[in-house]
Specification:
Length: 247
């Protein structure tokens, strides 16, 4: 069953913005950034959910940001853009015909009333995957998840590892906004890899209080996400043991 449609306001100190977390489908989050009476949507997979949030808060949609081409991220883009008359920022990709403003690594998006938005190319989950940085926050689509990372659909694990390393180099206080609520299942995997890691157990305990885990601080992520801890001997040893068992 799909999560109930609700708007959870996430205080976003870095840019003085409000971010509305909009649950969609079975486990997606659609994001709506608010500055005054204007909004920016990130990966609006369902136009109706975003349109209801815009109406609820009396907001005009100023721009749409697209991280990658999968339907649960772009399904509502065309309808919203047509209804609101706003630009759509995304990668150059034939699977993204709804994009009106093509952006790539290092580009800077200017939206009135919003801080500058910096574009990163973070391939791995898909070949043309983008992330969007604002002061104190990053919207990563399906590249990084709570205690996990996106599946490699295109490209190779090396590309995804490079993207994860780049994100992990941001400050500890960076708030990470990903597009799925996978943290509980991912922590079970993390605990199997690092059973003695207290950060993993502590993070699991917080989910009992609030099952919604996104956004999360990058510092917490580095302590409990094994995909950001590949250089540690303990993680490498656990992977080696698993590989031998799988043979």
């Amino acid at each position: 069953a799909a999560m109930a449609v609700q708007s959870v306001v996430v205080a976003f100190e870095g840019a003085g913005l409000l971010v509305h977390r909009l649950p969609a489908f079975a486990d997606n989050y659609l994001w709506l950034l608010q500055s005054g009476a204007r909004a920016v949507a990130v990966d609006p997979g369902d136009a109706g959910i975003v349109a209801r949030a815009l109406a609820m808060h009396d907001l005009a949609l100023a721009a749409i940001l697209v991280t990658h081409h999968h339907p649960d991220h772009v399904g509502g883009v065309a309808a919203l853009a047509a209804d609101q008359g706003c630009p759509v920022y995304g990668a150059r990709d034939p699977r993204l015909p709804m994009v009106t403003e093509i952006v790539g690594d290092g580009d800077r998006i200017q939206v009135a009333d919003f801080p500058e938005i910096v574009v990163w190319h973070v391939p791995g989950h898909t070949r043309t995957h983008l992330a969007f940085l604002l002061p104190g926050a990053i919207f990563v689509g399906d590249t990084l998840f709570g205690a996990g990372c996106g599946r490699v659909f295109e490209g190779d694990p090396t590309a995804l590892h490079g993207s994860l390393e780049r994100i992990a180099a941001l400050p500890d206080t960076t708030q990470v906004f990903c597009a799925h609520e996978y943290t509980r299942a991912n922590l079970a995997f993390a605990a199997a890899v690092e059973p003695d890691n207290p950060a993993i157990a502590a993070r699991h305990a917080t989910l009992a209080i609030d099952p919604a885990s996104v956004p999360f601080a990058l510092g917490t992520e580095r302590q409990s996400n094994v995909f950001l801890r590949c250089a540690l001997d303990s993680v490498r040893a656990a992977v080696s043991r698993h590989a031998q068992q799988a043979l």
